[in-house]
């Protein structure tokens, strides 16, 4: 539980309709917290709501957090939050070698993991309690770049720099990142298509822990960084040892 807070917390999870964000929503709802999940697609949000058992303490809100007016609407008039977590990313078309790289796809990915966190910090921080926190998700690509991964390596590394700067500018609000290794979530359909199962299996064989990540592994780490009142400006690596191999 967050320092100096007792009872249920109010947490917004942007990206909470899928993957790691959905796993975190399940975990926080299970702990009795009030959770708002945010994504662009209203049907996907509705499916997530059903998946989570549609409890009263769950809200959904459809917004594209790369768009200023939608981020303003997301936070307008909202009562105080304890935590804002953003797991959102759209890297469709961004995994390419430079000769094939479509700069619009690259800009779209940068918008989703760099511009969006800046917008969320700008408009969300005034809605956070002083004991509250922001958390973002970077990723192993910043540390183990692969061919075709230039854009994603860049945005994950930049996001970690942003987290350190925000931890100073927004203090005493805490700001942290979790850096996952390869985790089996729907994002892989966009990244690898039909090759998803083979790629994840070969990574599992390489990793010291002998498996790829589960969304719950990352939800666990996000729950730690938002809940630990002495943690700020930190990148918590949860990658099955990927940085070592
Ligand atoms: N999975 C991995 O192996 C892995 C590894 C390293 C790092 N990561 C990072 O981990 C984070 C979470 O990934 P995941 O695997 O959980 O992804 P995911 O299953 O694809 O979930 C992404 C979520 O973000 C939402 N979203 C995307 N763009 C958005 C936007 N512009 N505005 C609002 N919501 C948006 C999506 O909903 P809508 O599409 O409906 O908007 C969805 O709820 C990402 O930052 C990813 O880069 C993932």
Describe the overall structure.
The chain has 245 residues and is of the alpha/beta class. Helices cover 42% and strands 18% of the residues. It has a 7-stranded parallel beta sheet, with helices on both faces. Helix 1 (19-30) packs across helix 8 (215-227) and helix 4 (103-124) packs parallel to helix 5 (150-169). The termini are far apart. The mean pLDDT is 96. Residues 14-15, 17-21, 38-41, 44, 64-66, 87-90, 112-113, 116, 137, 139-140, 180, 182-183, 185-187 line the site of NADP nicotinamide-adenine-dinucleotide phosphate.
Give descriptors for this structure.
alpha/beta, seven-stranded parallel sheet, globular, binds NADP nicotinamide-adenine-dinucleotide phosphate
Brief overview, please?
The protein has 8 helices and 7 strands; from the N terminus they run E-H-E-H-E-H-E-H-E-H-E-H-H-H-E.
The amount of helix comes to: 40-55%
The total beta strand count reads: 7
N- and C-termini, Cα separation: 34 Å
- Strand-residue proportion: 15-25%
Low-confidence stretches: none
Bound molecules: NADP nicotinamide-adenine-dinucleotide phosphate
Describe the main β-sheet briefly: 7 strands, parallel
Structure annotation, total helices: 8
- Order of strands across the main sheet: 3-2-1-4-5-6-7
Could you spell the SSE succession in H and E letters? EHEHEHEHEHEHHHE
Q: Which structural class fits the helix and strand makeup?
A: alpha/beta
Rounded to the nearest angstrom, the radius of gyration is 17 Å
Inertia-based shape: globular
Overall pLDDT level: 96
